Amino acid sequence: MTRFPTGRFNNARRAAVLAVLAGACGGSEPGVARGELIFDACSPCHGDDGAGKRELGAPAIAGGSGWYLTAQLLKFQSGARGYHHADAEGLRMRPMSRALFADKGDIESVVEYVVSLPIPDPPATAQGGNAQAGEAEYVQLCANCHGRDGRGVDLGVPELNAPSLLHLNDWYVESSLRKYRDGVRGVGDAAGATMRAPASGLTDERIRDVTAYVMTMQRLPRKIAAPPPPPLPPVDADPAILPEGVTVAMAQEGQEIFNGTRGICFTCHVREGRGGALAPSLADDEWLNIDGGYESIVSIVMTGVPEPVEYPGTMQPRAGMPLTDDEVRAVAAYVFTLSR
Questions:
Q1: CA–CA gap between residue 221 and residue 218 (Å, rounded)
Q2: Per-residue confidence at 325, pLDDT binned at 50, 70, 90?
């Protein structure tokens, strides 16, 4: 099997790699064997073992979940990643991804092969960073999506899942957080927008702290997603306090949307609207942008909050999701009951 030496990734080498990839794509049925051939085009940057190469800015991909690797390749192909002039690594990856043909099984094959590789345990290389301070930051900003243990959260919807962090290089964690903060990454897709909110206010020091903490987490098992959250309690609302046209059934539907994958409101407001570092509590009678009336809640969910008053997390119209008007009104009904 052909392997390329480490070094400067110039145009000649890129052409050679693409030629290998093109040959691999036409020679076998989809599956691990085909994926191993295709991976010859990936190994010059990501390493034969998929453990990444810092000198090329290529992260560890062995140990990644199949859904995440697939989603990233599709984002590179579509331009949702690798679009920014300051993202040299992404710009390098984008044309490589476009040599893969989804209809021929190239993506599923190479992902299947990468998932089969032994999971690396990258050593800590970053300088500085206070892991104790980083733990506090992580719990407030990261744990709700990536899990308290960093193993990721699988909601069953690739666009909304959060990947494990436990196989990643520390330099890549730092680099990614800076890119999200600076708008170099995370523009144009729902998951990226969700990541940009907690990263937007991070200083370089805080990024180093979070990275230091991530590297201290228990590193096995890594491909097992964290257990699902406990069931939600029944909506306890007195029909007499509900506005005209609002029913308990609407509030119950809104509870599922708010705390699930249809609305993802919980990623900032936390489950059951308790509030966190990114967004305020909705379970009290204090309101920052509206008066708390039902129609004002409907309006703010519809239009979003592009410039938050006190919190770093911006709120997209309809939470950045394809919510119908009826679903928005159901979410508003649930939020209305939380503060009563």
A1: 8
A2: very high
**174, part of any domain:** yes
**In a shared domain, residues 208 and 245:** no
pTM for the predicted model, two decimal places: 0.68
The arithmetic mean of pLDDT across residues 133-157, rounded, is: 83
Specify the pLDDT at position 22: 52
Question: Which phi and psi angles does 58 have, rounded to 5°?
Answer: -100, 120
Q: What amino acid occupies position 304?
A: G
In DSSP notation, 198-251 reads HHTT--HHHHHHHHHHHTTS---S-SSPPPPPPPPPPP---GGGSPTT--HHHH
Element (H, E) at 178: helix 170-182
The count of domains in the chain is 3
Hey, what are 140's tokens?
A: 């407030």
pLDDT digits over 153-211, tens only?
A: 776 666 668 898 988 999 999 999 999 999 899 887 778 878 887 888 899 999 999 99
Q: What is the 3-state secondary structure (H, E, C) of 90-105?
A: HHHHHHHHCCCCHHHC
Instruction: Determine the longest span between alpha carbons in the chain, in angstroms.
Output: 73
Give residue 202's domain range. Answer: 131-214
* Domain limit, last residue, from 116, 145, 167: 116
- Strand-pair partners of 58: 53
Length of the chain: 340
93 and 82 Cβ atoms separated by less than 8 Å: yes
Residue 287 identity (one-letter amino acid)? W
* pLDDT bracket for residue 26 (50, 70, 90): low
How far is Cα 3 from Cα 132, in angstroms, rounded to an integer?
Answer: 41
